[in-house]
């Protein structure tokens, strides 16, 4: 056996566990879910077959389609707000905080990760409530006369999500920023670029891989999240994961839940296709 | 050295059975996860009770469908759904003479629901009411005696709806003068408009914990579908919370427990069922940290404090039992239609 052939065999051997893992825990379950999505229910029985009825219902029934629209709207809102907040935070940590304190600053930024996700969501419910901290403060300062309806709204869901994802995005953008040589900015300014032009034409494009990577991960985690809209949204509107849970937990309609899950995966795949050019998942 | 190791292994082998712990797998609702209820049974029988929570009969039956016989030993189920489970072959027959139903509130024996063809398959363990819970300092208690007040405009944005379609649609039916037993494909369309009107007047539709939080923090002043199960755990810190059965009536929820067909531990499963319906089990279940409810076994009253009985409205039960109706029992198609109506309401 030649050296090249030996290396190929070794490479295949090393890759095999990962391939087997992906086959066993992603490809096979996904194919099973895909097959199930074309089945239908007869009473409590799942009847296998090739019935596109679940997909037709998902797009033809307004209450089902609205869940998809709600999910996409909320996810896009959360992603944009999180990026807008995380970029300056990451920049301050990378450029303004002395290097010896940067680890501490990052630690403080991700501190909320240490709390349970569910507990954090219920905490937000109390903060945003009619008698919560925010309304008490606003009324105490005379800014509003009546408490604002913040809890059990889409706003509450977005706030809960943003709180979580700003931390995540800060990490990915920070990882990008600290690798940027200050010489790029100096060179741009030597060539006559102002501060804004340097930022818009040099710094920002160079940080796009970190931003897009964080934004993509935010998109994926946010659109598939069930807990936050369930607790903070007050069921005032349904998101796709909530609808999937209703189909599974309440109706026992696994084919419909599978179809909705496939649609959810398709949306994520579209998002991936849209930003794959800039994606650097090794930064996550 | 080898001899010592073999001796140690032999001793370990001999010792192991003494510490072996049997397990019992139970499909339950959250009130059964309270250690105060489960721990005494585990200690008495040196058994570990594995508890899995589920929501709604359809989900429970789906879990059983996807399990192997013997995976599950006992199951909690809406009393009105026992027939469904029996028809699906999911429940085993119980020895009626070994159940203390003679000590039960007569209305809670529910033989029509718990027996099929003269055979007992489940036993009622707990009951209560889905009605109207409210903060009596924020709303006029007299208004709460009439369901029409909820959609009068006076309480718009102050109402929360309990997120369970069966009792709330049952209440909406009562509000329209339709008995819960008459909720079917013909009458269901009549519930659409009043349900949407109720939703329009509401701030949120939420699960048990979120409903309790909203009522306790003042985010809403009324929970439609609430009752003692919602307010009782809050009563100590929030004495202003109250509940009532309006003049149109309320819904009586009741849960039963049975042994799952095909269990490999029928004796232990029966012991568990017997423990749950014993006065001790019933008193603990009635005051579960997840939600309270009336025990089916009247003898549990001897073990409940006067305060607990006051919260449960022990003395008012004869009147409440008269004024309440059971959950609707829809056929499969109507059930699907009810859930679709509920989903549409959520995404209104």
Question: How does this structure look, described?
Answer:
The complex is a heterodimer of chains A (284) and B (348). Chain A contains twelve helices and two strands, in the order H-E-E-H-H-H-H-H-H-H-H-H-H-H. Chain A has a single domain (38-118, 149-283), classed as MetI-like (MetI-like fold, Orthogonal Bundle). In chain A, a hairpin with a 2-residue loop joins strand 1 (40-42) and strand 2. Chain A is mostly helical. Helix content of chain A is 75%, strand content 2%. In chain A, strands 1-2 form a two-stranded antiparallel sheet. Chain A is flat, with a radius of gyration of 23 Å. Chain B has 348 residues and is of the alpha/beta class. Chain B folds into two domains: 20-127 and 253-314, 3-Layer(aba) Sandwich (D-Maltodextrin-Binding Protein, domain 2); 128-252 and 325-346, Periplasmic binding protein-like II (D-Maltodextrin-Binding Protein, domain 2, 3-Layer(aba) Sandwich), CATH 3.40.190. Chain B has helices at 2-19, 35-45, 57-65, 82-87, 111-114, 165-175, 189-200, 208-217, 228-231, 266-276, 279-286, 306-312, 317-323, 332-346; strands at 22-28, 47-53, 74-78, 115-116, 119-120, 123-135, 159-162, 202-206, 222-226, 241-244, 250-259, 294-295, 324-326. In chain B, the strands form two sheets. In chain B, strands 1, 2, 3, 6, 7, 8, 9, 10, 11, 12 and 13 form an eleven-stranded mixed β-sheet that branches. A two-stranded antiparallel ribbon of chain B has the order 4-5. The longest helix of chain B has 18 residues, at 2-19. Chain B is globular and about 55 Å long. Chain B starts with a helix and ends with a helix. Residues 5-20 of chain B have low confidence and may be disordered. The chains are: A mainly alpha (284), B alpha/beta (348).
